[in-house]
Amino acid sequence: MTNNQDLKEQQMHPGFCSATCVDRASLQNEIQKPELKTSDVFITCNLPKRFDHPHWFNGYGCQVSKQHPFYRTSASVYGWYPPGIHSVPSVYFPAGQSFTNRLAAAGMYRNYSLNTGMDPTGYA
């Protein structure tokens, strides 16, 4: 196909730029597809629903930030995009709550020893 024919095709179907969506029916089929889950791509083990459905994550910088791109720093890239199926863990081993439960029952440790250190201000 030549460039002129490509331009004519784009003019005939305005708004459709994807190679898979060249007509309205294909576009509707693409929109109707369910979101891809992590377990559809990877073998998962004991995975919570929030990791199996990463498209549920909201509130990341690219979704809510009104900051002008000129003032964005390179450090803001971390956490800018929500996790995808390739960046969420495929296995999940939660930590036990035994330490927290014991601490809640007994209370926080308190040091009752004498303070023998020098006064940091230097005044006696």
TrEMBL record:
The keyword DNA-binding does not apply. Keywords: Cell projection, Cytoplasm, Cytoskeleton. Belongs to the PIERCE1 family. The gene is LOC113511854. Pfam families: PIRC1_2. InterPro entries: PIRC1/2. It comes from Galleria mellonella (Greater wax moth). This is Piercer of microtubule wall 1 protein isoform X2. The keyword Glycosyltransferase does not apply. It is found in: Cell projection, Cilium; Cytoplasm, Cytoskeleton.
